[in-house]
Amino acid sequence: MTAPVVDQLRFTRAEWQRALRGFPEADGYRRFEPMNSVGWIVGHLAWHEQRYFLRRAQGVTLVPILDELVASGGPATTPSLRAMRDAWRTVAAATDAWLAALPVERFLDPMPPPGPRRTIGDGVLRVTYHYWFHIGEILAVRQLLDHPRRPEYVGDIERLAPYRPTTG
Prior knowledge:
Elements: H1 4-20, H2 38-58, H3 65-69, H4 81-101, H5 120-144, H6 157-160
C-alpha cells in the first residue's frame, strides 16, 4: 500500500496541473516581478523533486538543465513552459515510481547528503507544501492576466486523497 503522504503529494500535483490547465505557452514567459515566470515555476518544482528523490535518494539526475535554469538561488530565467512541463513529467514519473515502491517505514530514513538533514517523509511534505505555495503564485499570475476558467479552490480531496492513517 502506498504511504498516505504519497497520496497527498499525488493529489497536490493534480491540483497543480489543474491550476496550469489551459495556460498558454506565450504567457508562461511573462514575469510580474518579483514573482517568477510560470515556466520557471514549473521547472523549479521539477528541479526540487529531482534534487530530493532522484539525485539525493538514488544518485540519478534525469534532467540536468534544471540545475542551470531553475534552481533555488539562481538568476531569474523565463524558460519555455512546454519544455519545463516535459521535464516535470519526466521527473515526476520517476519520482512517483520510486515513492510508490518505498515501504512506509523507509519514510523515516534520512535523505543522503548533500543538503539539509531531513527524512524522506519530511522531504515529501516539504515538496508537497512547496507545490501549494506555487499553486497560489500561478493563480495570482492567472488573475493578473485575466485568464478565464481558472480554479478557485481546492478540488475534491475527500474523494481523491481522503485522510487515512499511516497504518491503515
